[in-house]
Amino acid sequence: MITIAGSIPSKEAIVNAGIQSPLEQTILDIMLMSSYTYAYRSIDALLFEIRFRVSITNSSRDLYYSGVQFADFYRSRCNPMFWHLLPDGAFQLKAGVPASEAILDIYRNGPMYAFECATAMIIILYHAAVKMLPPQKFNTLFANMRLWGWKFDQDLQIVHNIPPDYLPGDIRYVKNPDVNPLTPEWQGENVVDLGDGTFFGHGLGFRTIGGMIEALAMRRRPGATRMPYLMLPATRPGFSYLYQYSFNRDVSDHSILLFDNELVSTLTLEEYEKDRSALLKNFITVRIGDSI
Amino acid sequence: MKHSVSLEMLRKKEGIKPLQQYMNNLIEYDKKRAVSLLNEEDLTYPTLYVLSSYIKEKQLVKYLSDRNKIALSIQKDILAKERAPAAPFPYSICDLPQYIHSVLRWMVETGCEEKLNTRYRLVVDRAAGLLTTIYQHPDDLSVVSKLLFERKRAGHSTHYITWAYFSSHHIGSLLPIGEKLLSSNEEEVNFARELLHFIPGLDQNEEPYAYFRGWYEENLPYLLHNENSYELTAELAPYIVDHETKYRESFFPLHTTNLRQNEFHTLSEQEKEQLANLSYKIRMRSRREWKEWMNRPLSAQLTFMEEVQHDYDSR
Fold first, then answer.
1. Which of A8, A147, A253, A259 is the most buried (most CB within 10 A)?
2. Cβ neighbours of A222 in B, within 8 Å
3. CA distance A147 to chain B (A)
């Protein structure tokens, strides 16, 4: 089920608001059919998450076709025009370089880059964010970007838990408990759910979960007794957190700010008037600018 | 050339180039002495590594000791460019797997402080991984934890070593990490805190080692290995406390056991943890009192837990 500012919208209303591709429709259907309540402040916030998820799947495909290579942390490499390669295999954004350009360079000059599968997932999330956020906002948010597995992800507000439903754009993990210790880079594979029954894993390409398991099983130690398996948690960026940065206008241009314990959304006066009573009941609202 | 020359001293005092030059000349003029020096018991793995290309080029491998032969074979295998999936175990040159174990340990123990280059670090890190995942001997944990902290200190990747270390599936692996909380080196303490961050409350505690030991001793019987890693999450938790076992231990209530188990499962993770900790404390104080408490309904236990928490908060 989906609620918007506390009310249950019709499917038609959501579709008419801007659902376009079949994959967007699939995501919406899973949410609508779920026994879990997906609560959003506005339809825009819902559409933002759906489009972000589609963007993650597109960024996965684009990464594959960019020509980037798979490598463990000892053999990581990057374009020195945009990144410092640190001794631990991390890529540190060079001072003065816009983060959005550095991320796009990975896709433009793929063969100059090589990295591990967890780093690939972070790159995919950043690339999807480049597509979803205004460049200035992205470059401010991620000015000190470092790419190294999941360790430096604060600005994406990564959520990692067992979700009520698995949705396209989720990142899952196939664990290989009996990996050959000479190739620990195959201890598991982070994979993006592409929404069509296939998944993308950096180094293994596009496969079903069964295909991923089969590929990892080939990289087990001799005498292994345990098969690789899909773990229950899913990983995704903080969509509602990132949504607040998705507006092209500056905050000062907005009429209304909504606060829960923190800023949760910014609305136009029209959006505010439409759901005024529910918003006044559920949020602290602050008007700024000269509009009344 | 005097026989008393030590290859170790030459490498450490003169450097790698002079050592290689010396060995090159020695092989030319006195191959037997060169082999004798290479086979000395106190030779370290870094010295063997920097001379390995000469040894191969001059076809000396067949004259080397078993230890050196096995070490070079392991090194070659680790550095192989392509590894066919499910390759056969490569160390059949020795019928005694324990001997391979001792060679791996020698490689890591004598090699962990040297950095040399990326390829060298790769060999030592992988050797450490073989130790912890294949042999899983508790005595190796201190050696591998030393390597882990050496890598961190030098700013090199600890990703695979961390994975390898906790893949030992040995709860005792937490002890060498915990002992680093006593280090005078602030970076070591911070790294130990990072690795042990899954212990609730450790971050805020001003006496982290005492806190760690208390937590370890309290939870040791209830720790379960958790198969997450830095590949999956930034929040590594190699072990988790089995709250249900800590709460119930071997107790079977007068009422049906399944009912109590089912009730416990309905609690939030925080409630499970708090109730398990309270159960443990009462049990430690008085087993008789604990049995009485355990026979109360779960709702009464939760109320008591809230009262205890309230008393604690209002102090």
1. A147
2. 86-89
3. 13
